[in-house]
Specification:
The protein is α/β, with parallel strands linked by helices. The chain is built from five helices and six strands, in the order ββαβαβαβαβα. It has one domain: 3-Layer(aba) Sandwich (Rossmann fold).
Length: 145
């Protein structure tokens, strides 16, 4: 599937009280905007300015879903995604990036991303991706359409 958004869909939606979403992005305005969106949708949210900061946080708290930027200094999103796969294989990761290159998209999805979205992303598209990703994680499925 080609285009600005690539999602893995799960056929059944499961609701869970107050999902916690981790936002990992080095750009503060992006973190703030996503935090406001998550809160307005009734989701819990924690923001992280770096991949290392986020990975350290997993020692004390595990989110239900991760919104992950690919292009960050020190540790890029691919490295975060790889380390996350070793620590929390079932944790859904949604890539949100300003750089939509086919090789990056293919690599992220092959590494288990639930969705690959290009900035700026529409609110509804992002919220739908979170819903689908967390539903699939709850059911233990990984269905692609």
């Amino acid at each position: 599937m080609r285009g600005p958004a690539l999602l893995r869909y799960c056929p059944v939606l499961v609701t869970k009280a107050r999902l916690l979403v981790a936002v990992v992005d080095d750009e503060e305005p992006i973190r703030k905007a996503l935090m406001r969106l998550m809160r307005s949708a009734g989701l819990g949210v924690e923001t992280f300015a770096s991949g290392a900061e986020f990975l350290k946080s997993l020692e004390t708290r595990r989110p239900d879903c991760v919104l992950l930027d690919l292009h960050m200094p020190q540790m890029d999103g691919f490295n975060v995604q790889a380390q996350l796969a070793q620590k929390c294989a079932a944790l859904p990761v949604i890539i949100v990036t300003g750089h939509d290159f086919p090789k990056a998209r293919d690599r992220a999805m092959a590494s288990g991303a639930s969705a690959f979205l290009r900035k700026p992303v529409r609110d509804r598209t992002l919220l739908d991706a979170i819903s689908a990703a967390t539903s699939c994680a709850e059911l233990g499925t990984n269905t692609t359409t």
